[in-house]
Design goal:
By secondary structure, this protein is α/β, with parallel strands linked by helices. It is 44% helix and 19% strand. The strands form 3 sheets. A 6-stranded parallel β-sheet has the order 6-11-10-9-8-7. Strands 3-5-1-12 form a 4-stranded antiparallel β-sheet, with helices on one face. Strands 2-4 form a two-stranded antiparallel ribbon. The protein is elongated.
C-alpha cells in the first residue's frame, strides 16, 4: 500500500468519524468511564474475502491510539463466516472500542463486499485472457477505497479520475456532432491533442463505429451494450490493432459469454455502485 493511498484512507477515516462522533457519544460516556478496559471480537457472519483491515485499524487508532487490534487473517484471505468466525480481536478501553465500532465495521463490510464480488467475476473468467475492470461509478468520497478493494479481489482499476485517460463517450460524440464534427474527426482531433502518454478510448455501439474508430487510430475501443456475437465480430475486425473493452449490462450470468468473445477487458460498474456488504459484527467478550 503506497503512501498516497494511506493518506487518502486517513482522510476518509477522519471524515467518517466526524460524521459519527460529531457531538460525542453520551451513551458510552455515561455507562463506561475511560478506565474500564476489555476485549472484543470482530466476527465474520457471511462467507467472503477480507478487505479493509488496515482501514478498520486506522479507525480504532484515530479514536484511541492505545487500543490494540490483532488480525487473524491477512488482507485478501478467504473465510467461511457461517459459524461467525473471528477475524480479529480488539483490546483496550471499552469506551473507545464502542465509539469506533460502527465506523470500523462499516468500512470493513463495504470493502469486503466489493473484494468478494470482484473475485467472483475474476474467478468466473480465469481461463480467458480478459481482465475485470471497475469504473468511475463509485460512491462520492470513497472512490480510492472502493478501487483498492477491487484490486484486493483480483480486479484492475480503470480510470481513477477523468485525468487518467481519454474516453470519448456517446454524450461527447452527440454534442460534437451538433457542432459539425463527425465520428471519425472527433477521434482524430482527440488523438492529435491528447497529452503525452494518455491512451484514447472511444465508445462504440455497432460494427460501423468499430471500423471508424479503428481507422481513426483509437488505442482502446469500448464495445458498449453489444451482444456477444457482435462483440466477437468486432474483436475479429480489430485483430489486435487496438485493445477491446466490453461494457454495459454485464453480470455473473453472462460474463463468461462475454469473455469468450476474446475482449481484453470487461468493465463492471456494479462492482462498486451497488455491491452488497458482507456481514460483520463486533462483540464484547
Amino acid at each position: 500500500m503506497d503512501n498516497q493511498l494511506k493518506y487518502e484512507i486517513d482522510q476518509s477515516v477522519e471524515n467518517a468519524l466526524n460524521e459519527d462522533l460529531l457531538l460525542g457519544d453520551p451513551t458510552t460516556d455515561i455507562l463506561f468511564p475511560d478506565g474500564i478496559v476489555g476485549k472484543a471480537s470482530i466476527l465474520a457472519k457471511s462467507t467472503g474475502i477480507l478487505c479493509g483491515s488496515y482501514v478498520a485499524s486506522r479507525v480504532f487508532d484515530r479514536v484511541d491510539s492505545s487500543v490494540e487490534i490483532e488480525w487473524f487473517l491477512s488482507e485478501g484471505d478467504s473465510f467461511v463466516g457461517k459459524d461467525e468466525a473471528s477475524v480479529a480481536q480488539v483490546s483496550g478501553s471499552i469506551s473507545s472500542i464502542l465509539k469506533a465500532e460502527r465506523t470500523a465495521i462499516n468500512f470493513l463490510q463495504h470493502l469486503s463486499g466489493i473484494a468478494t464480488e470482484t473475485k467472483a467475476y475474476v474467478d468466473a473468467v480465469a481461463t480467458y485472457k480478459t481482465q475485470i475492470l471497475d469504473t468511475r461509478k463509485t460512491i462520492p468520497g470513497l472512490r480510492h477505497l472502493q478501487k483498492y478493494a477491487v484490486t484486493i479481489g483480483g480486479g484492475k482499476n480503470h480510470r481513477k479520475n477523468l485525468s487518467d485517460g481519454i474516453l470519448i463517450k456517446d454524450n461527447h460524440i452527440n454534442m460534437a456532432a451538433k457542432n459539425g464534427d463527425d465520428f471519425k474527426s472527433i477521434i482524430c482531433k482527440t488523438l492529435q491533442d491528447s497529452p503525452n502518454g494518455l491512451k484514447v478510448e472511444v465508445e462504440v455501439s455497432n460494427i460501423d463505429e468499430v471500423v471508424m474508430a479503428l481507422d481513426a487510430g483509437a488505442d482502446i475501443i469500448m464495445l458498449d451494450n453489444m451482444e456477444p456475437n457482435q462483440m466477437k465480430e468486432a474483436v475479429v475486425i480489430i485483430d489486435d490493432n487496438a485493445l477491446t473493452e466490453a461494457s454495459g449490462g454485464i453480470n455473473l450470468d453472462n460474463v463468461v459469454a462475454v469473455a469468450e468473445t476474446g475482449v481484453d477487458f470487461i468493465s463492471i460498474g456494479a462492482l462498486t455502485h451497488s455491491v452488497s456488504a458482507l456481514d460483520y459484527s463486533l462483540e464484547i467478550i
